[in-house]
Amino acid sequence: MIVEPLAIPDVKRLRPVVHGDARGFFLETFRADVFAAAGLPTEWAQDNHSRSTRGVLRGLHYQLVHPQGKLVRVARGRVFDVAVDLRRSSPTFGRWVGVELTDATLEMLWIPPGFAHGFLVLSDVADFLYKCTTPWDRASDRALRWDDPEVGIRWPLQGQAPTLSPRDAAAPGLKAAELFP
Fold it and tell me: Which residues are catalytic?
């Protein structure tokens, strides 16, 4: 597995070795020794699976008191995945990084605690899988506005408005959000 830092170095793209033939493919999505050598978590508290349709934008979500690190991947379809640094003490505070994740490349993204995370579905349907370092905690759960001009995420919307949950549509921008130290 190749682990490479992105423009925000704490966020990492993981490129698994895919072994394919006429029968299909095989790959490792997690291996403790490889993750430990790359400085990534080797213990997970929760696995999640969501299915969404084209144009659905989920996020930007984070947990304030019990921050989650997330290892995300797409099992079916294609998404534009985004991480926003919400750590006030970080040199990349308020910056974002986005990558396309697909079932064709099977790449994964590591989003460390202290980041907001979200994704936009680019295919007709997407199955999105993610491992979390801490369990979901309703009292700690927060959202950041997906289209905050201060953050300036360039979502590939192609002129279409995204489908949002009421909570995500009402989320505060960076200036009003509760942030990490």
Answer: 61, 130
Contact 61, 117 (CB under 8 A): yes
Q: If we measure between CA atoms, which residue out of 69, 63, 168, 167 comes closest to residue 120? A: 168
CB atoms within 10 A of CB 13: 18
Q: Is 3.40.50.300 the CATH number for 2-169?
A: no
Q: What is the pTM of this model?
A: 0.95
**Token pair of 24, please?**
């299909």
Quick one: average pLDDT of 76-85?
A: 98
Give yes or no for a cis peptide into 60 (omega within 30° of 0). yes
Q: ∠ CA 63-145-135 to the nearest 5 degrees?
A: 15
Domain map (residue ranges) of the chain: 2-169
Bridge partners of 47, per DSSP, are 131
